[in-house]
Amino acid sequence: MVDKLKPEDTTKFIHYSKLKFPNFDDVSVIFDIGSRHSLESIEFSKKFPNANIYAFEANPKCYRDCIENAKSIERINIYNVAVNNYDGICDFYAINPEKTITPWFDGNLGASSLYKANGKYPHEKYVQDKIEVSSVRLDSWCNANGVKNIDLMWIDAQGAGMRIFEGMGKKLLNTVKIIQIELEGTP
């Protein structure tokens, strides 16, 4: 699977990380939210040799790809949950790759989201299957898993960024040194 896909361009993120962390050995915790296939997590594992990487992927199909792609890297921990602003169960809109019209060879599973597509994106026509998935707040997840701070965050959650920040609470959010987030919006 890895040979067919390329990670998002992490070059600028890694460059800016150098400004805060001149020695990459000092980076100890990285969160990859909306991991899709773990390729960014794999890149981070190469650049940040001492970091524990926590990857979160809500889509069950993508989660299987994450596990397969990162199985040989012990420092990458993958969780099949939606990062959200509450703990529990939530609706998730998984892309149906057989019915979605897209140039992506895999049906663009990475466009799956906590939100239903509005149909206004002119380049693709999404067909989504509504499923229920586990949902976690990052502050409660970190408390349960002994994570006290986050050095770097990479967020590609198809519009759910504000929910993610709300679920961190101010205390945890204030520990993050660098955040890369994909933003979506309608002009």
Short description:
It holds the Pfam family Methyltransf_21. It is built from six helices and eight strands; from the N terminus they run αβαβαββββαβααβ.
Structure description:
The chain is built from 6 helices and 8 strands. Helices cover 26% and strands 22% of the residues. The model has no long low-confidence stretch (mean pLDDT 94). With 187 residues, it is an alpha/beta fold. The protein has a single domain (10-18, 27-181), classed as Rossmann fold, CATH 3.40.50. It has helices spanning 11-20, 39-47, 60-70, 138-145, 161-166, 169-173, and strands at residues 29-33, 52-56, 76-79, 82-83, 88-95, 128-136, 152-155, 178-181.
| Count of helical regions | 6
Order of helices and strands: HEHEHEEEEHEHHE
The shape, in one word, is globular
Quote the distance from N terminus to C terminus: 36 Å
Number of domains: 1
Q: Give start-end ranges of low-pLDDT stretches.
A: none
Rg value: 16 Å
Strand order in the largest sheet: 3-2-1-7-8
CATH class: Alpha Beta
